Amino acid sequence: MKALIISADQFEDSELLYPYWRLREEGFGVEVASFQKGKIRGKRGYEVPVNLTLEEIQPEEYVALILPGGKAPAKLRTEERVLGIVKDFYRAGKPIAAICHGPQILISAGLLEERKATCYRTVKEELLACGAEYLDQEVVVDGQIITSREPRDLPAFMGALLRKLKGLEERPGAVAFQGNPLTLVGPEIKIGQKAPNFTLVDKDLNSVSLKDFSGKVKVISVTPSLDTPVCDLQARRFNQEATGLAEDVVVLNVSVDLPFALARFCAQAGIDRILVLSDYRERAFGRAYGLLIKELKLLARAVLVIDREDTVRYLELVPEITREPDYERVLAVLRELK
Questions:
Q1: In the annotation, is 100 catalytic?
Q2: Are 278 and 253 spatial neighbours (Cβ–Cβ below 8 Å)?
Q3: Each residue's pLDDT tens digit, 257-281
């Protein structure tokens, strides 16, 4: 996996070098992009090799974008290519981490309106003017966007980014079980973003990924365990509804039940219209979609609709996991997509 740093001459040295080496230490590849190849020089004299020009950047190759501060963002924010790249990362739901003057690029890209963020103190008024809520904190995380104020905040800045990249960020109280609050691990998926890829296992131990359903509309019904009454009802209802759906619509049921349990359930319940899949191996789907319950190691109850271009068009995270989802709303969204 690779991360991308975009910067230029007069960057704040530590704000580029610290993320570069921390990511390398964690096993990520890191590439630096700028206006031209060669080297860029920091405010304090450090030189950093540039791997590729702005025109050569392919956002789909990277898992995160880092925007260091210094004087470089003032130049970069005027380049349409830079703003387009930032927007591509945003639409793909990938983490964007900006520190010091770095948030100026996010302001110019129009990504901070009605968001919580922080920045270097001289950028505060500009942040407020764009419609953001300024917080004087060492790090602010709002969805996929991470911002910090200055070099002394780098440990918190990189800690937040690495938690996102590892799917370890936590959302306390996101759901409840019989009224008791639970913590979800992973990012909060937003409608309009690209759906994260996943690899799951079917009841015959075959690997199944999002790419296997390319060009189809995907309904992903997520359940804690098919051995419980509400999950049983949810799977049966979607199996029934699937009979009336278009041929290019596929319905997946995802849980952490073992494949052998899935096979038994399908045989007993007559499940033959939906594909029943398991996230039992590493809970990677749960972490990628922010649906892994920390306390139970089960998945929260949710339903997603992902369109033919793999964009999330609908998401219901059921706040009380003992309750069923809104089936009619899911069907309405499918009719809209048709």
A1: yes
A2: no
A3: 999 999 999 999 999 999 999 999 9
